[in-house]
Amino acid sequence: MGPTMPPSKKAQSPSSGASASQGMSPPYRQGDAATAASEAEAADLSLSLSASFSKAEDEELTSLSWLHESTDLLNSFSHSGLRSVSPLQDPDGQHPRSPSSSSPSPDDPLLGDAHSAYDLAAGANRKPPYSFSCLIFMAIEDAPNKRLPVKDIYGWILEHFPYFANAPTGWKNSVRHNLSLNKCFKKVDKDRSQSIGKGSLWSIDPEYRHNLIQALKKTPYHPYSPGLATPPTSPPTLPQTFHHSPPLWSGSPLFRKNGGVLLQVPRGVIQNGARVRSQALFPVIRPLPVSPVGSRTSAIRSSLGDYLSRGQDSPSRYSPPPCSEDLQDDHTYSTAKSPSRLCSSQVAAPSSPLDDDDIIAVEIQSDVKPEPREIPLDSHVTTAAATYISQQALRGQRRSSGAGAGTLAGSSLPWTKNRARGISDTLPLKKRRAAAVEKPPESDDEEMKEAAGSLLHLAGVRACLNNITNRTAKGQKEQKDALRN
DNA sequence: CACTGAGTAAACAAGT
DNA sequence: GACTTGTTTACTCAGT
Questions:
Q1: pLDDT per position as a tens digit, A65-100
Q2: Which nucleotides of chain B are near protein (any atom < 7 Å from a CB)?
Q3: What is the largest CA-CA distance in chain A?
Q4: % chain A with pLDDT above 70
Q5: What is the rounded distance in angstroms from the CA atom of residue A79 to the CA atom of residue A250?
Q6: Where is this protein localized, as stated in its record (predicted)?
Q7: A365 Cβ nearer than 7 Å to chain C strand
Q8: Cβ atoms of A397 and A341 closer than 8 Å
Q9: What total of structural domains would you count in chain A?
């Protein structure tokens, strides 16, 4: 221990961390595995979803049970060529595309990009899409006693992520740096009966465990994560997704349990979803948030069941949940990086949810300026998805109106030991909210938002760039007229 | 432009 | 003395 270590380092109150956990993972992309999914399969998504949710809920995937469920989940990942788009970390350099990857098809640039990103042979050369905090967290969580010495943390990382075997040794320094810096990790008094040599055992601070779980969950890891389908010409800025879901990439146990259907999205979905995201209309295509929380899966299933029971011909009857003021309060892993967030209290859908362009209009009625948008959707789960979309837009509006910088809306890693700040510093959103309006409880709302988001993701967000841009103004006018009538 | 998160490098001290 | 562990600082970069 350094002589200059401030005594407050380990003794800092974790209060701030409980309220404003941070986004930890830079945007990452990963390879595409489900390349051959058919449209017909996508059509069955909703049905499969229902079963998936049932399974998830029945199994009550609490906490990181999904992580423990199968270590080959991580192995699959580490060998699957999932790649980072972080210019700093991606061994490919600043361009997210691997030089070894094949060029995207001219006819299908987005999918081609997705395909090329998936390099099964490059796993050991790809940095895992987890921050060191997440890696450490997973390592410790994977330990029987939930505590590990640094050496074993190294070993776990090396075991599961061969990338580090050949990586510069600095990553160990980074691990130690994270352990020391991150309040989520705390040293455990070494049991003298244990001869682990020098050093301490590291464990997860229970008070921050949730933060780490959230950070881990939000890591976009599966082939349809936002970063994946980024067209080569799109800017490198990838809005961060905040998933409250276990990894549903191809190695995910949950994925396998459901025959892989969860990730099987038609090609068009990928393409257009990315297109939408590149337009900052759909900042994210969220992985299916099969949440560890049973209530959340219930909410998802409920919303889906609602839709299924109504049929596709009446999506407009779907009653979206009341919008929330801010999603960032409850789960601090906000999607603050998402450029557009919406909160809708009403979703107006066309009589036919699947018109030629699969476009629906979303109208936002909230305390913020309505911003009707035409949301291209791929499938019939349009209303729930539209709800999510609108919520995203509202978020964006709120964010733009308040606390500046993006990730986590200015909250600054409250779990970071020597960066802990006061509440006023870590919760700018709360401050804004307090200054704005009192808001209703949003726990249930959160569930529904995530449900909507997952439905959106699973349905596959199909966006037509031109349609969006060209129809926005028109849609606004039409919706205003409709309201008047 | 300022701020933040994350990664990295480096220095240093202490323990083994 | 070499190595490991732990802490801290400083810096860069991406994103907003």
A1: 555 443 444 444 444 333 333 323 333 333 333 333
A2: 2-16
A3: 78
A4: 17
A5: 12
A6: Nucleus
A7: no
A8: yes
A9: 1
A447 located within any domain: yes
Residue A70 domain-assigned (yes or no): no
Closest residue by C-alpha to C1' distance, nucleotide C3:
A198
Tell me the per-residue pLDDT of A225-248, one tens digit each, with 9 for 90 and over. 333 333 333 333 333 333 333 333
Instruction: Tell me the C-alpha distance between A174 and A167, whole Å.
Output: 12
A128 neighbors A207 (Cβ within 8 angstroms): no
Which positions ≥6 away from A9 have C-beta within 8 Å?
A: A180, A417, A418
Query: How many Cα atoms within 13 Å fall on the side-chain side of residue A318?
Result: 36
Decide if A121 is inside a domain.
no
Residues with Cβ within 8 Å of A90's Cβ and at least 6 positions away in sequence, in order, are: A83, A84, A96, A126, A127
- Convert the pLDDT of each residue in A104-114 to its tens digit: 333 333 323 33
Report how far apart, in Å, the C-alpha atoms of A173 and of each of A3, A128, A154, A190 are: 19, 17, 10, 21
| Nearest partner of A155 among A175, A180, A183, judged by Cα | A175
A443 touches strand C (CB under 7 A): no
Distance CA A249, CA A347 (A): 30
CB A296 within 8 A of CB A289: yes
Containing structural domain, residue A397: 15-62+227-484
Q: Strand C: which nucleotides have any atom within 7 A of a protein Cβ?
A: 4-10, 12-16
